[in-house]
Structures are given as C-alpha cells and as structure tokens.
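Dear all,

This email documents one entry for the complex benchmark we are building for the journal club exercise. For each entry we list the sequence lines for every component of the assembly. Then comes the predicted three-dimensional structure of the complex as a token string, followed by one or two observations. Please use this as the template for your own entries, and keep the labels exactly as they appear.
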Amino acid sequence: MNTLSYGLLALLTANPLTGYELTQGIKPLWRAGHSQIYPLLQSMEEKGFIRHERIEQSDKPDKKIYTITEEGISVLQEWVRLPAEPAVLRDELHFKLYSLWLTEPDEAKALLQRRMEFNRSELQRYNLLIKANEALLDERGETRELKATTFGRYLLLQKRVMAMKASIEFCEWAIGELERSSPPPG
Amino acid sequence: MNTLSYGLLALLTANPLTGYELTQGIKPLWRAGHSQIYPLLQSMEEKGFIRHERIEQSDKPDKKIYTITEEGISVLQEWVRLPAEPAVLRDELHFKLYSLWLTEPDEAKALLQRRMEFNRSELQRYNLLIKANEALLDERGETRELKATTFGRYLLLQKRVMAMKASIEFCEWAIGELERSSPPPG
DNA sequence: CGTGACATGTAACGCGTTACATGATTAA
DNA sequence: TTAATCATGTAACGCGTTACATGTCACG
C-alpha cells in the first residue's frame, strides 16, 4: 500500500468507479498513468480493500466497477490521521531560472511566459472542477456523506487554485524583473 | 542526461563544488540523495561535461572538486532555452484532504497545522538563503558573472518563497473553514 | 479515413529512496 | 559515548513513464 493506493481508496469513498475513471479522476491530485493504476487495483482487491463487478458492454469494451469495502474504508481512515509527508515538487524551471543568465533576455522571458500560460489554463480547469463540485451539491446534496465528500474536494481544489495563482504571480513578477534588468529597445 | 544532471551543471556554473556540496546545495531546487548524484557525476565526466581535481585531506576524507567544462556550459545553454516541462507536485495531503471527513475535526485541524508549521520553517530557511545570496553580492559582487548567477538564485528563491506563502495561506484558510463547519465547544 | 474516447492489461526501462559500507574529527 | 559533519561510493528495491497490445464506436 503506497500513497497512490490510498489515493485510489479515497476516490472510491465518494462513489464506485472503473479503473479508467480512476485514471481520469486522479489527475488533479496525483500524476499517474493507467499502467500504474490497474495493477494496484488488482493487489488491493487481493487484500480485500476493494471488490469489483464486471459490466458487459456491447458498444464499448467491458468494464470493472470497483467498490470500496468496509475494510478498505477502515485502512484509509487510519492512514488519513497519520501526519502527511512533506510535498515533493519537481520543477525543471528551478534549474532553468538558476542558469537564466546563459540565455538571451528574450528567451528567458519566453520561458516564463510559456509557464504562465500553462498555469493560467490549469487555473481555468480547476475553476471548472470547483463549479462542477458545487453543482453536484446543489442538485442532490442532501445526504451528510455527499456534503462531506464535496467539502473535501472543495478544500483540495482551493489548495490547487491558490498554488496556481501564486505561480502566475511569480511569473508576472519575474518577467518584470527581467525587463527592469535589461530594458527592451524602444 | 536527465533533469538532475542539468541541475548539477547549473550549480557548477556558479563555482566548482564537490559531490558532497552539490548534494547539500541542490536541496532547495530538487529532491535528490547523494547516491543519485555520485554516479551522475561520473557519467558526466565520461561525457566531458565536467572534470575533477582530487584534494587530499588528513583530518577529513579526501574530496573531488568538480568543475564544469566549456562543453558542459554549452550543453547546459542549449537545454536552458528548451521549454520547461510542467512542474510535478506530489502531495499526500491532497488525498488526506479529499478524505478528511473520515477523521475527527480535531485530527483534521492537526493535519493542517503540522503542514503549516513545516511550511513556516521552510519559508524561514528560504529567507536565510536569500540574505546569504544578497550578502554575497554586497561583499564581492563586482564581476558580471557573479551578478548574473546571483540574479538567477534570487529569482528561484523568490519562486519558492511565494509558493510557501501561498501554501501557508491555504492552511490558515482551510483551518478556518473547518472551524466554521464544526465550531469548537466554548 | 484518421483521430479521440472508451476500456483493460503487460513489459521494459529509468528515476528515486533506503540501506549497506567505511572512517576520521568534533561537539554535546 | 553518541550523534553530527565531512566525504565517497554501491546495491537493492520500489515507483513512475513509455511503449507494446487489442478492439469498438462516434465524429469530422
């Protein structure tokens, strides 16, 4: 049981999902491809933390819908209360900033601008997810459980939004610093 | 040549360093242990991007001081102008936030508080690094090269500072949200 | 007629962490 | 005397990415 395994359990507490849906749904939380996820689902099923139901489909490939078991919920519960390890950030840009003086000022600016545009599109994506989450609550947010899972998603998405905004602010500031240190002609 | 290899080259453009010093110095930029770094130094030396000088010491173990070569600088230069891959963030807290409703409100708050305290200590560490960087410039910041490398470090450290501040703000906000949704007795 | 979504899996390889290995000096 | 700093290396294992593998339907 590694971190990703617990993450899959976390997603399954909200509702039953297929491996394919888990692969899509985990994207804003953790970077993982389907080739990592399918084997973990198999091993968690052997451990009794999840179980699956096979759905035969004629138009699309058959699928397996995974549901978390009572045992799965209780191991997740124990894990959640354990202190969280420090976040690990791996960003090439750190090294590129460090050696920025090796490039032309124009190229340095372009580097930051590309990152800023990517961050802006990510921010937009998170805002859409927040709206979808709120809509879910408005439509059928009656049970205590749905309110609770929606709240968790809300916290998480706000975390991502705040980080993205900070990153965009950094890019804007750094581009300004670059222009101050080598003003463009004109 | 992976990202970490270019990162080591980046550090070596500022001044010659030992593998040990590189292991320490890379910490704010990338997570990597010495067992990753020593083999990369050997392979980069075979490629001709760096070279080393052995220093014999009587009180401490002997050391190897690595210097970047002209060829090393030129491959780094080419790499820096390439677009930076999106940053990868791996944070257990994402999953724990998502399943926060499985814990007692007190434990949920403690989870966020621990992270906030860690972030605050990181912020302090970065502020010290910024001061050290500025001091370096004041003391002997005459050459154009030193000014340039100091500038790169400055940008990078500001990036980390802004990210940490955003993360601290998130924790404060999230603790507030938790208190609002389940007020403490009294 | 090709691309993308749906859907699940395995294999190979590279990257990252932990542990093993050695050994002197210095401060608590 | 125990831990920490300096200093370099290897080995084993686990995690993450890319590629291989298969097949249908819908849309442009």
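Observations: The longest helix of chain B spans residues 144-181. The domain at 3-80 of chain B is CATH 1.10.10.10 (Arc Repressor Mutant, subunit A).
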